[in-house]
Specification:
308 residues; 5-stranded mixed beta sheet; binds zinc ion; alpha/beta; Nucleotidyltransferase, domain 5; 37% helix; 2 domains; single chain
Length: 308
Amino acid sequence: MAGTRHLGIDLGATNLKWTVVGHDAGAWSVVAQDSVPTRTDGDPAGVPAAVVAQMTDVVRAAAATWGPLASVGIGVPGLYDPLAGSVRFLVNLPGPWAGHPVAAPISAATGLPVALINDARAFGLAELRLGAGRGAASMVGMTLGTGVGGVIAVDGRVHQGHDGTAGEIGHQVIDPDGPPCGCGSNGCLEAYARADRIAAACGTADVPEAVAAAQAGGARAIAGLAEIGRYLAVGIANMITVIAPDVVVIGGGVAQAGAPLFDPLMAELRRRVRMTSLDDVRIELAELGTWAGSIGAAVHGAERAGLA
Ligand SMILES: [Zn+2]
């Protein structure tokens, strides 16, 4: 086996997805991947310890079958302390996660370096190294799911800020008098373009139904996606104005909607991007699908350990 192997875990409320990536002479490849249901049943007070133990088991099992592993990265759905390797706040996972150590116990149990990264930044790092952003020096990424995840990359690296929170494109305010956002502010892009608001705008139960209805010619869904596309474009145009990226990568369920979303989105982008030429900014769909988070976590673990 040439090169080194690195494990990434995407900690989700429903599943732990994991990917082993290979790194050889500067090139990344996917070696193996799978998922297991996250252990969130039982007393919520015990969930953080149970999930950390479960992730330790995943590392050991992956090392036994696909190792030797050189590093581990873990994508978390929320905020974390990059120096302490502990979690500050997780979206959608039960239990007292604030201050709960994650990196240190897994590292102690496995002997491997372990680094945390926000799951949206992991998505972006994966697309930057192995996906639609390959070779780009600067990138803006957006993952449209339950919320609106964001990432920016400059000079070939995902910009983390001092605490890993940089790139929260979904929490830029696009209307100072807009609806409340889960973050405590109001008028954030996410307050318009998160999954439940997309479904409401389209008059459907969820986003897959909204996409199907629009593609079948449903007038309300088409109008709803046009409205969402316009809001997304305002947020993306702001980022293009600030970053002037080589590429914008858009992922997540509603990104599959095609023309009903992207025609109005592109029209609004052309209206809003005035400082740089939109012709020089590639607008791409994400390529790595639901595995991007675990792939990016693996890349982050390797880079943080100085191994890539
Ligand atoms: Zn917000």
